[in-house]
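1st attempt posting a full record on here, be nice pls
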Amino acid sequence: MMVAPREKALAAATVVVLLFGALGLSAKGRLEAWRGRRAVYAARTQELARQRLLIANRADWEARYAELRDLMPVFPADKQVDTYWLGTMDAVASKNGVSIVKRQVGAEKLAGDVYEFTIECKEWEGSLAALVKFLYDLQAEGAMLDMRQLFVRPHPSNPGILRGSFTLACAYLREKNDVTSP
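the predicted structure (as tokens):
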């Protein structure tokens, strides 16, 4: 059987088209993978620049930490801190006319040298002026109290009263145990 030159040319063209198609399909996947790696590289480059900036400003951060460290209360390693923070929150609330109805204490968490304790107030009531004064006085307590979440809604039967919930984070330090055994 004799293959005509025209059939040879068509067969060669078909093979070339199939090769280019296969190359295109494999190149598409590789191009997408390359774009993905490029995006990861750009994100990591930005993160590296941010980390280098933080390292460059280390002296400033340490100075700010030294200032705030002296403001934070220090508790013995075995002392429960919930009564101290609940008393502080209740004193500020009663001073400003905010009624805390239901609250729940969270767990103590360690972040570096600083401990964090959360108080979740499930329900509180007060006027708008009382709430603003309460929040201001909490902020005036210093860097150790941080309002993380605050939800406010009007009281259903009394429009002059607000109610809601909030989460208060309290920061403090613990004394180090320098007990050495012989």
